[in-house]
Amino acid sequence: MELFNNLILGFSVALSFQNLWFCFIGVLLGTLIGVLPGIGPLATIAMLLPITFNVAPVSALIMLAGIYYGAQYGGSTTAILVNLPGETSAVVTCIDGYQMARQGRAGPALAIAAIGSFVAGTVCTLFIALFGPPLAEMALKFGAPEYFSLMLMGLVTAAVLAHGDMIKALAMVALGLLLGVVGTDVNSGMSRFAFGISELTDGIGFVVLAVGVFAVGEIVSNLGETEERQVFTKGKITGLFPTWPDLKASIGPILRGTGIGAFLGVLPGTGPAIASFSSYMLEKKVSKTPERFGNGAIEGVAGPESANNADAQCKFIPTLTLGIPASAVMALMLGALTIQGIAPGPQVMTQKPDLFWGLIASMWVGNLMLVILNLPLIGLWVSLLKVPYRFLFPAIMGFSCIGIYSVNNSAFDVYLTAIFAVIGFFWMRLEMPAAPLLLGFVLGPLMEENLRRALLISRGDPSVFVTRPISAGFIITTVLIILIMVVPAVRKKREAITD
Amino acid sequence: MKFDWRNNRDFWAGVFFILTGAAAMIISRDYPMGSALRMGPGYFPTVLGGIVVVFGIYVLIKGVINNEKVVGNWSLRALFILPAATWIFGVMMETVGFIPALFVLMYTSSIAGKEFKFLEVTIMAVVMVAVCTGVFIYGLGLPYPLFKGH
Fold this sequence. Notes:
The complex is a heterodimer of chains A (about 500) and B (about 150).
Chain A: H1 2-14, H2 17-35, H3 41-48, H4 57-82, H5 91-102, H6 106-140, H7 144-160, H8 166-181, E1 183-184, E2 191-192, H9 206-224, H10 244-266, H11 272-286, H12 299-314, H13 316-322, H14 328-339, H15 347-351, H16 353-384, H17 389-408, H18 411-429, H19 434-457, H20 464-467, H21 469-486, H22 488-498
Antiparallel strand pairs in A: 1-2
Chain B: H1 9-28, H2 43-66, H3 76-95, H4 98-111, H5 118-139
Helix pairs in contact in B: 1-2, 3-4, 4-5
């Protein structure tokens, strides 16, 4: 019964005129950047953070969330139509989606992607509503050792599942934790790694790091590429609706994809790309006709599309119930909360139920909007793809710079962004993954704080992390993940997937 | 295959990790270490610096063995110009105000691209300034003077 009341409260918040409007703006912007390659949800949310300063916290989060899952969705539209993944999570969709489009079945491919995402969104909304409150209740009992172990697990998972070399990713996580140390130490009041620069005593801004590396650094990298983007948009999209056999073939993949996405989504550290890839592998494995995959199998679109949407949505579970950002994008969401004066953590759900349930309900509303909005607007998105990059990147530069400056009204942040753009470019070229670094950076201060507190409680005895059952569970999982990855066969498989 | 350090991807990644990790450890010596029971501000960064160095050595050795090359094209032009353009924007926001800063940014960043058509960039700069002034200054009420100085 409580579930119903909560959902009713959520929908009453999400369906207010103002919040519908912000949700609409969010999914529209999200789809837009999802369609445009070269700019991801992370950089966009970072750039647009200042827009949310003057709106109510619920509306701000609703809009940012809309950008996030809207981008997921827009990325698959271009993957299907022009074989260009707008976002990394849509890489898998290219394989069969584009083949379907070439066979004149772009309509059903787009529709099944929409339906799959919508089903996944609906299931995950219920999932969060069911499991969010008990999780938050459990989290209230977490002490410092549990928080430390959980974050350790998240960081290791992030490194293991990152693109490319695992050791490099782990090193980047450690480097991120180190960057997080910059600023005033909360325990001793001593300023560390500030080099006498007063702005640095407050630490490095998350937005500065994100925009520097993922917006400006990315542009620097893109401008080095010589190849021009080619857009194939021959032929009209006819017959939007999937046939009955299409639908029947897709039910299984959609449900399995939702399951995979929801499971991986709850784990901190994983990204939607992993979810969509796992789902594709699974569908190929369970299919009676695996040879159809790669030649326009509708299951190869339905599964991954449901999985990445489910993952995107379920990332909110650890973020909102534990106050631990499960991905770099989620860290920005928590940043937005903090700017609004709300401390993230398990208490958000009880103290601000309208915020929590409003956000959850709005995600369902947003998914519905995407289905209704997107199919008629496909022509617009395709024509957007033809905008030359030389118009695009100065505009991105403009929004990035204004966004950075406005966070603290500080020119110093702008200078720091320039520096991180250069460093970020070299990271990209040396294939040092920046996403795990960002996660480490966000969790750094939290981890140090909890580590110190845990050892203070235990009088310096490190066994506290393994003698408390919940904490021990996280540590054992972490060790298992590392051990599994050391097994040569698994290692090879991982390399095949993440490369 | 001969070991070539100049274009060796993991060699340089390793060098980067080792240098930053070591720098963190050296700088942390100025901060009290404390003990495991009562960690001082130097404890966490020293341990992390050590971890980064160890991983860095592994990556460097891997680079020497595998000899993987850095791939992709470099645009030195973009690498210099875009961060410089960002920097100039920061300086101009402090000295001459929002409109000139944004206007100049459109030109400076466009130079980094492969094509630079003056008329095209001017039109784009005017549109961007108009849109951003409308949205950020009037719409969202960000408190920046449009022109500053005089």
